[in-house]
Amino acid sequence: MSTVLISIFCPDRTGLIAAITGRLFDLGANLGDTSFAMLGAGAEFTSICELPAGFDALEIEGALEAMPELASAQISVRSFDLDSAHGPAGRITHRVVVSGGDRPGLVARLSEVFGEFKANIVRMDAQRLPEQGLYITRFAVSLTERADACLATVANTAGELHLTCHIETA
């Protein structure tokens, strides 16, 4: 059995996740960590998969390229040689949502705060909603040290930028 990283970028369309994951299931691949996101009018699918014996990355890539749903997609399937299991730093302890007007450098400033407190960002998602005049940034973080001080600094940083901050314990 081998482990691969599958990355797909293509125009977004309804049923895309079902088509991709259905094909991978048919090929015997077992999905591990997987994410999907719309990026503008595009879609990004990324997954760590275990392949059954006898399959290699090129065969999986070819099978995905043959799908009509992925006709104009950029597809990459390559060996994944890192541990596919999270360590303790992958355990989400808090979710932080910062929203308000778009500010250049916002993601960088908030990421720097997490870094100062040795928090690991497990997931990050940022989305511009121009029709509502909003920019929403969501962080799922693993905080093991000085969590209260870190979260207070994040909230203060958001406040300085005239943004709202909502924090949940996971």
Topology summary:
Layout: E1 2-11, H1 16-26, E2 30-39, E3 42-51, H2 57-65, E4 74-79, E5 94-100, H3 106-116, E6 120-129, E7 134-142, H4 147-160, E8 164-169
Antiparallel strand pairs: 1-3, 1-4, 2-3, 5-7, 5-8, 6-7
Helix pairs in contact: 3-4
The succession of helices and strands, N to C, reads: EHEEHEEHEEHE
Indicate the mean pLDDT.
Answer: 94
Provide the low-confidence segments as ranges: none
What global shape is seen?
Answer: flat
Offer a few descriptive terms:
170 residues, alpha+beta, four-stranded antiparallel beta sheet, 8 strands, 26% helix, 40% strand
What do you see in this structure?
- The chain has 170 residues and is of the alpha+beta class.
- The protein contains 4 helices and 8 strands.
- The chain has helices spanning 16-26, 57-65, 106-116, 147-160; strands at residues 2-11, 30-39, 42-51, 74-79, 94-100, 120-129, 134-142, 164-169.
- The strands form 2 sheets. A 4-stranded antiparallel β-sheet has the order 2-3-1-4, covered by helices on one side. The protein has a 4-stranded antiparallel β-sheet with strand order 6-7-5-8, with helices on one face.
- Helix 3 runs antiparallel to helix 4 (147-160).
- The radius of gyration is 19 Å and the shape is flat.
